[in-house]
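lol ok so funny story. i was supposed to be doing the assay writeup but got distracted and ended up predicting the structure for this chain instead. priorities right. anyway since i did it might as well share w the group, maybe its usefull for someone
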Amino acid sequence: MVNVTRVGDYGGVRWVHRLDCGHSAVRKRRGGVRLGCVECLGAREFESFSRELVKAPPPVVDDGLAEAEVEAASLRALVAGRLGVPQEQVEVVVGVAANGRLGVRSGWVWLSASQLRSVL
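and the output, tada:
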């Protein structure tokens, strides 16, 4: 703290504390020798908070799931269209292929008796 100045008259006295950092703090009572600057403390807290926000995100692992799901959805639509059944009756299974990537492994179609007769 650099200095303390009294401002105002009886009943309305305010003490202006001039701090080492250049800021000033206005209080109703004269402060002690150790008075912290709210603006500087807030800036320090914001700096540490903003540093935490800027940390690099973890690396994204591309396991091919998105591509496998797109392939499964298009295959499901193709089979449903060819057989003339709703897509809900077609199941496509995605699994790990021999090369270690995800891909379509198998699939099946649920048919009612009438649908089975119309396909055959």
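The beta strands are 3-7, 14-18, 24-27, 90-96, 102-109. The radius of gyration is 36 Å.
back to the writeup now i swear
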